[in-house]
């Protein structure tokens, strides 16, 4: 009898773990990014997924040293992978609209997040990026991994001073 109870408890606990692991906490600090869309599995504030900087920096990310058209010489960027942010929000769709503080926006296919190691850079050369320095978030393509991305198509998608990402069909 005790073995059956223990087995049942393990099964119930195992079933609950994925639910706990996917829940998106409420931001405790200043919101720096809001993800919206009709299909968000993990909204945390009124149907939207909002992130403060510690939430973003806790996600799986990458660091890359690269040259860009907007910086001088080789610069080290780090931050969460775009796909990690979208997974945390539980976002489903085919297109992304990335919107800057000044309302500049770029449309990109979801594949840019899922197939490439595109990051939302929060740091440049180890320092948090200020609005003056293209922060707080800068969509950086993996130019260091694939020189074929170093062209106008991806430059036009490299939004800085990001505030919102809209996920659409």
TrEMBL record:
Pfam families: Oxidored_molyb
Superkingdom of origin: Bacteria
InterPro entries: OxRdtase_Mopterin-bd_dom, OxRdtase_Mopterin-bd_sf
Domain annotation Oxidoreductase molybdopterin-binding: ranges: 68-142
Keyword Signal annotated: yes
Position of the signal peptide: 1-23
Protein name from the UniProt record: Oxidoreductase molybdopterin-binding domain-containing protein
